[in-house]
Amino acid sequence: MSRSRTASTDGVEVVLAGFVDYLREQRGVSSLTVDAYVSDARRFLEHRGNGRVRELTASDVSRAVLGEVDGRAAATLRRFACSLRAFLRYAHLAGLIDSDRSAAVLPVAGRQTSLLPLGLTAAQTRALLHSCDRRRAVGRRDYAMIVLMLRLGLRATEVADLQLDDIDWRTGNVTVHGKRTRIDRLPLPADVGTAIAGYLHRGRPRSTARAVFVRTAPPSEGVSRSAVSSIVRRASERAGLEPFGSHRLRHTTACQMLRAGGSLVEISQVLRHDSLGATARYARVDVDRLRAIARAWPIESAS
Fold it and tell me: Which residues are catalytic?
């Protein structure tokens, strides 16, 4: 690597190190958000060829967003815009640029095809589970992960973070480490416990890692959040379904509970939502049930 290239790389890393401190200490965002924002900021800086941003213009910022349009989903583009705004605010506060250019980031509109969460049907769920070959260690692991997410609505991060000590086999409970350091104890359904126990006894490699789910190939360390979502996506493809990630299983948990007669309060407790408002949107997936519980609108006489 040439000296100029090394200096350029060092400049980018110095700027990003300050950005990380800003996100953690002043914005208080999660580690996942820090990783995402820094990844986007790094791509922006490397595209410019150096870590210097003092000469950055509003036109440069707009062009950076336009350059991300081709081949990227609307959600990914919106995140890039958020990342860039945060970075430009930091750059101004840190004195790297003379004015706040975050307003130059073009707004990103994304058309949402449906506001309704998409849960799997019973047939699709069976196909997804049957796609995991439980004669093999990797199949037992993937099956246990998917059953866990289907029954308890865990996020990919929560599955990856699950530790051996989080499962209390005597009481039949599992401790879930959620968003914003939230910790919840949930009942461990019998089928989930059976699937995890089968994996631990006949599938999990010997490892010093305390994570429940570990990689099948060396090094035998805990799987990552992205690996969990990739496992679900590969299973959906094997099952002949339209590919989807792990969050589809969380929607399925809520939809199944609603159709079984569960209340929004119960669904909120299982999904560990901060408010009933976040859970209420799941009510829209079951029109028949809503018709059954809806009361007729009172007709008042004209005043």
Answer: 155, 179, 247, 250, 273, 282
